[in-house]
Amino acid sequence: MASISIRNVSKSYGRTPVLHRLEIDIADGEFVSFLGPSGCGKSTLLFCIAGLEEITVGEIRLGDRAMGRTPPRDRNIALVFQDYALYPHMRVRDNIAFPLLQQSIAAETVRGQVAWAAELLGLETLLDRLPAELSGGQRQRVAVGRAIVRNPAALLMDEPLSNLDASLRVRMRTEIKRLQKELGLTVVFVTHDQEEAMVLSDRIAVLDGGVLQQFAEPMTVYREPANQFVASFIGSPQMNFLPGPMAGGALDDRSLLGVRPHDLVPVHRAPDGVLAVEGTLALVEPAGPVTYLDVALADGSLVKATCADPRGHQPGERLTLAVPRHRVSIFDAASGVRTGALAVATGEDSNDMKAMAHGL
Amino acid sequence: MSTTAPAMTGPAAAPAPALRGRRTERVAGFAYLAVAPTLLVVLLVVGVPLGYSFFLSLNRTNPITKRWIFVGLQNYTALLHSTDLLQALGRTAYFAAFSVIGTTLLGGVFALVLNERFAGRGVLRSIVLVPWAMAPISVGVLWSFLFAGEFGAINGLLNDLGLSALATPWLGNGFRALNLLALVHVWNQAPLTALMLLAGLQSMPASLHKAAMLDGAGPVRRFLSITLPWLKPNLMFISIIATINALMAFDVLWALTRGGPGNATTVLAWLGYLMSFQFFKFGEGAAVLYVLTAISFVLAIFYFVVLGPRRGGAPAPAGTLAGLPGARRVRSMAVLPPFRPRRGWLPPATARAAARIGFWGVTALVLIWSAWPVVALLLMSLMPGADLIRTPATFLPSTLTLHNFIAVLMPDTVAAVNTSVQAQRVPFSLLNSFIVGAVVAVVSVALGTLAGYAFSRNAKARTFQAALWGLLLTRMTPALTLVLPYFIGFRVLGLIDTRLALIISYCSFLLPLSAWMMRSYFEGVPLSLDRAALIDGCSRAKMLWKILLPVARPGVVATAIFCFLASWNEFLFALILTSTPKAQTIPVILAGFLSQAQFYTYGPLFAATVLSIAPPVAVAFLFQRYLVQGALSGAVKG
Ligand SMILES: Nc1ncnc2c1ncn2[C@@H]1O[C@H](COP(=O)(O)OP(=O)(O)OP(=O)(O)O)[C@@H](O)[C@H]1O
Ligand SMILES: [Mg+2]
Predict the structure, then answer these.
(1) Rounded distance, CA A287 to CA A237, Å?
(2) Stated pTM of the model
């Protein structure tokens, strides 16, 4: 196992810049996700770490070794490809054994290690099949098996779950997390799916257009997004943005207020310490455990709020919405950078919410 | 797949609801209509002649009285006892082994080089294709002058380089002639192998090699463990086609050695030709050619068994729940030796530099191998006649002139006063070649598209599977076996010496090819497109015309190119079925030129050869992309 440090790394394909001055330090045994919109350079960064692509500027270190132009085969890094890249003509057994056979390891050890990986991933009955004879989830497990079988310094995964159905996905991600904990692996995980990233990661690196936007723990990324891009990319439905003057006080048009729909609830009477806005209910969208309310404000803009119980709410009705002030992020309207919250968090979050919900 | 194709009930037939659980597939009437022309043509023009030539092989004719006598298997038993046949068999085996191994190795190197990304790759791809795009008869003309003893270009080059001691009449020695003949065949055929291998390489996902790199495999291990197994299905087709093309090699033989010196290069195909068309022993000739046909079928089956797709295997998984991870845990991880970065015998930077130099070296060799002979031909066609007969021979022209081209293109002008008869026929033969090629391309693409569509959409139906194998079988039938029945048939019909006869013959062996190619192309077009069009109210025919054809355009272009090239370059049928300039195509004129060549006609001969390869070369340069794509179908005509 090893730490990975990415120092001032830039990468361009010909004249197209893809990665821009990235600084990311990943500790030994840490689980880090790269999250970002399609085409932001996530795969490219993984390939750079693995040595499959050369970086244009900067340095990548594995543990205490600077990689320079070390070829991929000398880095001891395993990568689970998005399309799995299983060798189509080799049986599952041979696929898993392939990386071990490239090092001079005794046949007995290889056999034992393959059996271990197969058992860990529940592949015992599939060892004699060809990849074409496996389902998507099984292929993915084989790909993971091939990656962990040789005890790599770091395990990189490029959207390994994207081809699976929803329930298998949830199950596989639990498996991956368990494996990582059990083996103490350093894992870099690329995904489109923010929920996956939130659940799995110790830290999340949010990328956009090849630039690192934020690198922090999942709850920090959610609660204290570094800028408007992160704020709107993370969390579903998207964060509401309100004009600064709505908060009263010293804020003017140069600021924006960011409020997550989940923090904004209808109340009868706004208690102290909350930011309240009034509007007309435009649309009620039940989404299972919660119901989303689209509310039109006086200036015509729409905000999304949530409530637990939609009964009694009719479109056209006047509503007061409230959000605890410390849950309101303030962004600089020009640069998009988060400058702070409306208030410092005090006491237990959940108590505030409960109080408000009771006030309903 | 348990949905059936809907029956066509009218112009706006809506798809019938899918019938589930039926064992046999129902096939639409439209599908039968679509394959009928192709199957009919194949049956008539391959099946019947094949049967007829088998009948011939059971007879003997008296050349003087022209009487036919039925002799049963006597022709065959006589052959078994003749040393001629055994010797020819040995030479054929040697020639075929040399060619198959040579084309596969060389084609493999070409494909690996051309699969890399580098500046000028597109141009190099086109250049590499040129030797294959040329007519084999042009290849023969070209190499016969490269190899020629007194005035040959190779000897000229050796003289120029101060290596006169090495100059020799290259085709003078029997065994050397056989080897050189095989080498020329390899020169002509290796690009085809390269094309098909390249298509295979291009379809390989890039992630496979990346994964293997990360798994610690070096270049050699990756080639052996990843690339080769990936190409295995292509290699089956390639071996079959290379073997058949080697067994049937005729044009190059005709131009270069004509079986000699002595009978050192008399292979089976040549023996069959000699018997039938020189000694007019049609029965015995047919028997020899039938032996050849049998050998090619047997070998094809052999390759199929050895290299063919693995059948059966484990059943598809019943569900994704089989073997869920983490149920019980007994085993613990083995203790692996710590990862040691490998120690190469060269420092990494040096190794990289060496690899680059090696790559460019190989690329340069590929370029020289493919281009030099053609450049030499071009130079010779631009030399004044006197340069070609200088002694000692030299490769460097004294001046460059267009005289030779004027002589063949405008035989009536003053500049061309003393041109030969053959030279005067060149312009009209180019026109013949062009008309025949264009008509053949249009007809076989039109019918082949229909058939290919029906085959691709009814892949599961028994009748269609059988028919498809039938088509493939015709691909393995040597043209030499067919040409005699054709000759007799066309004589009965009074079509000898007409372009129509050539068109009919070429269509007959190009139709299966074009149906096969279009079938593989349509297989890549999703079925949902058909369904959408039918739901939107198209008739079957309109759907094919308006929706599928535009989608399949690259396939159509590739198929048309292959058909045009094949008929432009065809020599054997043109030689046998034509006798006057009225219908003679350019390969026949070149051949006539070659056999009557006088020292003062070498220049025009080269000019005519350059003209004969101009359209194929243009195609190689303009449509290189389509050719690579077309090769994906794996059934390319040699
Ligand atoms: N070989 C290449 N040559 C030129 N540009 C490339 C190449 N590979 C990727 N790019 C570009 O680099 C950018 C980043 O690509 P990358 O594959 O890393 O994105 P990604 O974040 O993994 O996207 P996705 O989530 O869709 O997989 C894209 O804009 C892509 O177009
Ligand atoms: Mg990607």
Answers:
(1) 11
(2) 0.79
